[in-house]
């Protein structure tokens, strides 16, 4: 047993002397140590407690001109981002890492993204109302598919007005009538009991 301990000590000593004798070996050992440190640190890294961004109040449903829509590109104080697709306007603020400033689709923020989505181009060709009349059927199908995805993921906040079109008068009656129906239904049931 004493011989095994002695042999282990000799092997360790010889390995250390080999490492110390060559500057290249020292550099490799340092490199290995740094890489091991980074691997261990990345696996044990505790994410910092990020402050959640305040949730914006729900935007009242209304219609937008192209110029009004342009204001909602994520650069204003509240950071709200709206995008029009096929005549409908969606609040995409929760997807700001994509549509906000610096995001891969930032060109769509505050714009009508229909033509860009139809042609697979991340750019907006015009600052005026685009009626999309020159798109072919395949491109229009693509716009409708994108619109369906936006409907699923984001809140519809209104529509994009054509030049000269009058805005729709959205009232809070829709919200109130659904609340009254729910409350009235509960009241009717209690009367029956």
Structure description:
The protein is mainly alpha-helical and 193 residues long. It is 48% helix and 7% strand. It has a 3-stranded antiparallel beta sheet, covered by helices on one side. A hairpin with a 2-residue loop joins strand 1 (82-85) and strand 2 (88-91). The longest helix has 22 residues, at 23-44. The radius of gyration is 31 Å and the shape is elongated. The N and C termini lie far apart (91 Å). Mean pLDDT is 81; it is low at 176-193.
Write the layout of secondary structure elements.
Elements: H1 2-21, H2 23-44, H3 66-70, E1 82-85, E2 88-91, H4 96-99, H5 114-118, H6 137-153, E3 155-159, H7 173-192
Antiparallel strand pairs: 1-2, 2-3
Helix pairs in contact: 1-2
Percent of residues in helices: 40-55%
How would you sum up the major sheet? 3 strands, antiparallel
The topology string of helices and strands comes to: HHHEEHHHEH
Strand order of the largest sheet: 1-2-3
How would you describe the shape? elongated
Distance between the termini: 91 Å
Strand content: 5-15%
In round numbers, the mean pLDDT is 81
Return Rg in Å. 31 Å
Uncertain ranges: 176-193
Number of helices: 7
The beta-strand count equals 3
Alpha-beta content class: mainly alpha
């Amino acid at each position: 047993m004493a011989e095994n301990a002695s042999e282990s000590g000799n092997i360790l000593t010889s390995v250390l002397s080999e490492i110390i004798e060559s500057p290249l070996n020292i550099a490799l050992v340092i490199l290995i140590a740094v890489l091991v440190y980074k691997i261990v640190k990345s696996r044990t890294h505790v994410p910092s407690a990020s402050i959640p961004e305040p949730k914006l109040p729900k935007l009242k449903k209304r219609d937008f001109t192209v110029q009004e829509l342009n204001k909602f590109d994520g650069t204003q104080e509240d950071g709200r981002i709206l995008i029009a697709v096929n005549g409908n306007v969606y609040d995409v603020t929760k997807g700001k890492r994509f549509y906000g400033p610096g995001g891969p689709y930032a060109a769509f923020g505050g714009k009508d993204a229909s033509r860009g989505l139809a042609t697979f181009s991340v750019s907006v060709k015009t600052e005026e109302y685009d009626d999309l009349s020159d798109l072919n059927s395949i491109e229009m199908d693509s716009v409708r598919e994108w619109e369906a995805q936006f409907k699923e993921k984001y809140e519809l906040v209104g529509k994009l007005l054509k030049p000269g079109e009058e805005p729709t008068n959205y009232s809070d009656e829709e919200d109130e009538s659904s609340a009254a129906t729910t409350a009235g239904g509960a009241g009717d049931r209690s009367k029956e009991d």
